[in-house]
Amino acid sequence: MLQFLGGALADITSLLVEAQRVFDFLESNENEVDTTSSISNGKDLDLAYEEGINIERLTFAYKDREPILHNFNLQIKNGEKVMLVGESGCGKSTILKVLMRFYDQSEGTIRICGHNIEEYSLKQLRSMITYVPQENYLFEGTVMENILFGNPYVDETMAKNAAKMAYAHDFISEMPDGYDTILSSGGRNLSGGQRQRIAIARAFMKNSPILLMDEPSSALDVESENKINLAMKKLMGNRIVIMVTHRTSSFHEFDRVFEL
């Protein structure tokens, strides 16, 4: 009976966590309306991409709170890899969420590929960006299905190569059914580090020009973090990477470290 109650409590706790994520998402998007883009998907956008990301005088405050960001400026050139560091609560993660337009800035301008982000439709903007949040969602399904999620144009061979770059292939291969092993909702039958590696493998497969990563290696040891960051640098090539982290052990794999 005690074992049953313990399992039930774990299930309830997991459901409450998932429900809170849904509520947070709905709150952040309560005023979100996807507008028609004034920007083409063709050659003009490719040429404009050379301009990278330009954030000017960004001010942001969560509802009924004091500004967490005030007159923040950051320019990132095409191909740059930038690490954002700073104390907890200084606004590092918020910058990524504003770039994704989960929230809109109170003041200031953000330009991506030479255009104000408000000129893009949400679908168009988010198709340009791969976002790895702090809490990575894994659904009930096989390991392979979780890696392939959101990547309709890739095959299993590409997924396994991505898993190798994320240093996930070895532990996946040791699971009872390998890539066909069923994961529980939220990946509860994996460790925190294993969940992060699968999420990173999923991100590595996307061919978007911008990669945003929010504490992607917080559950990894330093050696694994360094290896993954090195693989990320090679894989992303001339694409933009912005990583939020409180650990600077792999700073040498980045072009700049920006402290808030």
Automatic annotation (TrEMBL):
Determine if Aminoacyl-tRNA synthetase is one of this entry's keywords. no
Q: Which GO terms describe its molecular function?
A: ATP binding; ATP hydrolysis activity; ATPase-coupled transmembrane transporter activity; cysteine-type peptidase activity
Classification via InterPro entries: AAA+_ATPase, ABC1_TM_sf, ABC_transporter-like_ATP-bd, ABC_transporter-like_CS, P-loop_NTPase, Type_1_exporter
In terms of one coarse class, where is the protein primarily found? Answer: membrane
Q: How is the protein disposed in the membrane?
A: Multi-pass membrane protein
PROSITE patterns from the entry? Answer: ABC_TRANSPORTER_1, ABC_TRANSPORTER_2
- SMART domains hit by this protein: AAA (SM00382)
| Gene Ontology CC terms, in alphabetical order | plasma membrane
What the entry lists under Pfam families is as follows: ABC_tran
Where in or outside the cell it occurs: the entry states:
Cell membrane
| Gene3D superfamilies xrefs | ABC transporter type 1, transmembrane domain, P-loop containing nucleotide triphosphate hydrolases
Q: Which stretches make up the ABC transporter domain? A: 53-260
Key words of the record: ATP-binding, Cell membrane, Hydrolase, Membrane, Nucleotide-binding, Protease, Thiol protease, Transmembrane, Transmembrane helix, Transport
Q: Which SUPFAM superfamilies match?
A: P-loop containing nucleoside triphosphate hydrolases
The record's annotation in PANTHER family points to: ATP-BINDING CASSETTE SUB-FAMILY B, MITOCHONDRIAL POTASSIUM CHANNEL ATP-BINDING SUBUNIT
> What name appears for this protein in its UniProt entry?
ATP-binding cassette, subfamily B/ATP-binding cassette, subfamily B, MsbA
Species this protein is from: [Clostridium] fimetarium
